[in-house]
């Protein structure tokens, strides 16, 4: 809180932000304004709702603090920036950016919001350090009335997801984040403008692409599909490497790389599952000569962002919000990112300083290092909520049911008017 205290001009929102963060770190079942207010001992959710909607503070400035905090505690050689998106399934059409669109969260087309995120990963840990809410072009960016109702500022214009990713990458590099590599999945690897921007910046990348991607071999003279290149590789071209530690130990795959284009440092990287034979493809570029093992390491780091999303949603309520406004979304997401990076920083600082060999399992007699869920569990004991009286519990029960009755009455009245044409 000392890091971000200066972002709040008054003591009331600063105190609410502290209570909000403690609520995100708590064992509350759902981390929305109602439950966080109850967790904090308030008699109404008003202070939490004002914090997200009306209080005067800059969520982007706090985001900058999150980024610095992550680098201070997690920064070390070999840092990688990872771009990815996650969906937030929502009902209705009033939430900023919501529409029927594909989301990997549900694995299908759903009514949802999509956030594009930037993660920072090193050998010390990983955390989300930036975010952008994606605004669909036709249903939102070009609809002034809908934009105004959701509080979307005029400066927020339509941008593709790769463009949003580049804005976050450029901001991180401008802020001094030391990361020699960027990685992302096919949604970002297939975008030539993003790859060109990274090359112009001198930042290496290992970006996933589709098997149908055409590359140029034979010193750039011959265009060919990536999967065709893989089919023609001799057995001697494949090498066994670990893509990093997994839940059950090192994740070994067969890997091959092929020089493409006319530059010295441009490659097609191919990963083959040792059991199923399934292939994955990556376009790679680096400003200097690198080894196959280094490209494999960066490709393996990409999964760190999935771990960030899982931890952010399950541990600090990234997707628990019940807000519709543009400002409220960014404020909740930023505070959840701060809670997550705090847990990651504690885990990194508590990790033993002994060297580890990723190819050899640790002694079964030694406990594993503190994890983010375990740290949060311990913190809830230290910063446990005050004892709640039966009267306070009953107060909140009555308040919730009154609020739900009002909402139900409004819904029925609106539906009746629609049916009668009134």
UniProtKB/TrEMBL annotation:
InterPro entries: IS701-like, IS701-like_DDE_dom, RNaseH-like_sf. Pfam families: DDE_5 (PF13546). It comes from the Bacteria. Residues 7-218 form the Transposase IS701-like DDE domain. This is IS701 family transposase. It comes from Streptomyces formicae. Transmembrane segments: none annotated.
């Amino acid at each position: 809180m000392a890091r971000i205290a200066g972002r709040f001009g008054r003591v009331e929102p600063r105190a609410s932000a502290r209570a909000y963060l403690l609520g995100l770190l708590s064992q509350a079942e759902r981390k929305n304004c109602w439950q966080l207010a109850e967790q904090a001992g308030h008699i109404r959710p008003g202070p939490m709702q004002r914090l997200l909607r009306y209080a005067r503070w800059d969520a982007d400035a706090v985001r900058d603090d999150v980024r610095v905090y992550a680098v201070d505690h997690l920064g070390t050689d070999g840092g990688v920036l990872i771009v990815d998106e996650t969906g937030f399934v929502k009902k209705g059409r009033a939430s900023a950016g919501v529409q029927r669109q594909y989301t990997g969260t549900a694995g299908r087309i759903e009514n949802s919001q999509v956030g594009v995120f930037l993660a920072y990963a090193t050998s010390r840990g990983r955390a989300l350090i930036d975010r952008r809410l994606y605004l669909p072009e036709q249903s939102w960016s070009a609809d002034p009335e809908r934009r105004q109702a959701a509080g979307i500022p005029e400066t927020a214009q339509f941008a593709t997801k790769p463009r949003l990713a580049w804005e976050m990458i450029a901001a991180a590099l401008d802020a001094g984040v030391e990361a020699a590599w960027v990685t992302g999945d096919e949604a970002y690897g297939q975008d030539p403008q993003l790859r060109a921007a990274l090359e112009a910046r001198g930042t290496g990348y290992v970006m996933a692409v589709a098997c149908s991607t055409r590359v140029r071999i034979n010193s750039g003279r011959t265009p060919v599909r990536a999967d065709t290149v893989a089919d023609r590789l001799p057995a001697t071209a494949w090498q066994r490497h670990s893509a990093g530690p997994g839940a059950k130990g090192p994740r070994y795959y067969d890997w091959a790389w092929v020089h493409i284009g006319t530059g010295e440092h441009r490659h097609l990287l191919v990963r083959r599952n040792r059991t199923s034979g399934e292939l994955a493809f990556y376009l790679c570029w680096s400003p200097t000569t690198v080894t196959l093992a280094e490209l494999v390491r960066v490709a393996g780091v990409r999964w760190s962002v999935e771990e960030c999303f899982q931890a952010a949603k399950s541990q600090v309520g990234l997707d628990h919000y019940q807000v519709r406004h543009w400002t409220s979304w960014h404020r909740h997401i930023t505070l959840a990112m701060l809670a997550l990076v705090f847990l990651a920083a504690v885990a990194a600082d508590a990790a033993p300083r002994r060297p580890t060999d990723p190819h050899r399992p640790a002694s079964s007699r030694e406990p594993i290092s503190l994890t983010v869920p375990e740290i949060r569990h311990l913190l809830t004991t230290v910063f446990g909520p005050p004892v709640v009286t039966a009267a306070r519990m009953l107060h909140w029960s009555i308040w919730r049911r009154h609020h739900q009755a009002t909402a139900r009455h409004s819904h029925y009245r609106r539906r009746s008017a629609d049916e009668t044409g009134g």
